[in-house]
Amino acid sequence: MATKPSSRRSMIFGAAALAVALVAGFAVYQMHSSAAAGTTAVRITLDPAGFAGDTKQAYVVAEQHPELLAQLDCYCGCEEHEGHKSLLDCFRTNHGAGCDICVGEAVTAGKMLAEGTPVDQIRQALRARYGHGG
Questions:
Q1: Domain ranges of the chain
Q2: CA–CA separation, 72 vs 96, rounded Å?
Q3: Continuous segment of H or E residues that includes residue 74
Q4: What pLDDT does residue 111 have?
Q5: Which residues fall within 8 angstroms of residue 88, CB to CB, at 6 or more apart?
Q6: pTM (2 decimals)?
Q7: 134 pLDDT exceeds 50?
């Protein structure tokens, strides 16, 4: 009995989806296993050691508090020209190193967090200071 082309495509699509899910699941398992075993975790920002001054401090904030920067908007316009979704994205590449707005936002956010300022107030302060491009 021959298989219909549409059901054959469905089977191929299903097998491909299963393969992608297995690979993604294995990657997540490996990240958690590495972290639990005390090995080096996957880096989500560039290494702060490659920078100096306020730029280094901004990358330190991004490395130590990615959950904070992921909740904050960047006001340099990178969402339009680089597709960034949050301030954290600026520090995944060299973009943050070449942008005073990104660096200023990250350093300010880090200081405010250290003072115990809630995220919503940090967000408001950054919007007030940088919301118009600087």
A1: 1-42, 48-130
A2: 14
A3: none
A4: 98
A5: 44, 45, 62, 66, 69, 70, 72
A6: 0.67
A7: yes
- First and final C-alpha spacing in the chain: 69
Q: Supply 64's token pair.
A: 């130590």
Distance CA 51, CA 42 (A): 20
Cβ 69 vs Cβ 87: under 8 Å: yes
Dihedral, 121, 53, 45, 109 alpha carbons, nearest 10 = 0
Instruction: Return the structure tokens found at 98.
Output: 């070449």
Question: Helices 119-130 & 100-114, crossing angle to 10 degrees?
Answer: 150
How much is the pLDDT for 81? 78
What are the φ and ψ backbone dihedral angles of 14, each rounded to 5 degrees? -60, -40
CA–CA dist 1, 3 (Å, integer): 7
Amino acid at 45: T
